[in-house]
Amino acid sequence: MNKKELALKLFDLGVLQFGEFTLKSGLQSPFYLDFRRIVAYPDILKNISEQLWNLVTDLEFDHLCGVPYAALSLSSTMAVLHSKSMIVKRKEQKKHGTKKMVEGIYQKGDTCVVIDDVISSGISMIETLEALEGEGLKIKHVLSIVDRMQGGAVMLNDYGYEVRTVYTIREVLEYLKEGGKVNQKQYTDTLVFIETNRIDFEQVRARRKQRTSYSYKKIGKEAKHPVAKRLTEIVLKKKTNLCCSADVKTSAELLALADAVGPNICMIKTHTDNLSDFTPEIIEELKKLAEKHNFLIFEDRKFADIGHIVMQQFTAAPLCIADWADVVTVHVVAGSSSIEALKATGKLDTTALIVVAEMSTQDTLTDQKYTEKAMTIAEQHSDIVLGTVSQNYRSDNPGIMMLTPGINTDRKKDGLGQTYNHPDEAFAKRGVDIMIVGRGIYSSDNPRLQSEIYKKIGWESYLKRDNDA
Length: 469
Ligand SMILES: O=P(O)(O)OC[C@H]1O[C@H](OP(=O)(O)OP(=O)(O)O)[C@H](O)[C@@H]1O
Ligand SMILES: O=C(O)c1cc(=O)[nH]c(=O)[nH]1
Hints:
The strands form three sheets. The chain has an eight-stranded parallel barrel with strand order 9-10-11-12-13-14-15-16, surrounded by six helices. It has a six-stranded mixed β-sheet with strand order 5-4-3-6-7-8, sandwiched between helices. Strands 1-2 form a two-stranded antiparallel ribbon. The protein is of the alpha/beta class. Strand 13, helix 16 (about 370-380) and strand 14 (about 385-390) form a beta-alpha-beta unit. Helix 1 packs antiparallel against helix 2. The longest helix has 18 residues, at about 445-465. It contains 19 helices and 16 strands.
């Protein structure tokens, strides 16, 4: 069966339907391609899988992976027919067993070709690529049966992937018109729809990333690390989602600030490497205050080096962070290896990680793509990651908290085209779980009073929002 005959056959099997459909991107479409139907027709499944295989005969690669679910039958058939290894990417993480998102046998650095049945916005493909790349797999080529020509394939090309498809939707329509399956009006209307309905990938992505907010009860229930659970208990008990950033220079200032704001905070954020007079005794004093006021100690160390160095930085004297920090930050600019190295120290039973997914500086390099990849890495290590530092994105996983710095209560200050970062905005619209406030508290004349004010505003903003408990 050649491509034209196959297109006609697919039409007869109801793969192309006209009507009113809502696409994954949210767009309303007058037509839909339903390749899930072909699992009922083994010969057709085989034929389409061979058409896809023909697109990669010039390539050398280690694995095939189908975008779940529709393309799983395609990747399986190709793998079986051509004795190739296959990898399965899950849509959702299982709550039992190994809890892996990517199943199969592979090594970091292995190459993989990814297959979808249809590319519309390209979001499904990108989600799968990010999960596989998060595992260290290398992907250059992506395939689909049909490119709906609505922007997804172009976007994937822009992202550096080579897209190969059996058909464009225009080709399918041409074959069907020639074969008398669709009339001139259907042909024209569909093409006009495509031309006038390009999907803005970034917009769709941003909309999909507007997360639901979760109650602290739900977060505590879903969080895996004991420190994360303890944090939500403190938040609920003290009715505070305030983390005070103690960016001070001396131990005396740190201890005085911790004692003053202690009753109003759930965490204190430290930069102990900035203390001019650091000694291990200071940590003992700080721990006493943490116990007295019931807050956690969050060392904002932002590890970013290769695994070997990160391990040393976490454990080495004089700071010995691993021995006392309840929480510590880590960048994933080096990939997930930084996190894995920290885990390999065997010291993460009592210290949880926060992944820095997005920085708030004006010319930050943590663009959307970086942030989303960092979020994926955080989600893949949810047993040791308590949350992410980010401005705009909250993980879909309720157990991974969103911590956001740069929040202040002075609306006027931020009304000049800057990101609006009043607690109401942060908690209600962005799904923030913990607000980090620094200068707004420690630079004030009365840090205790300021922290009390922030505590109240933060808690009220949390109560006002629509929590998905
Ligand atoms: O390019 P996109 O805008 O992401 O749209 C295309 C995706 O939509 C469909 O999957 P769907 O999410 O409906 O799920 P299914 O495969 O599990 O049925 C289809 O199988 C593609 O994967
Ligand atoms: O965009 C989508 O969600 C979509 C379009 C289409 O034609 N077929 C499909 O399975 N999904």
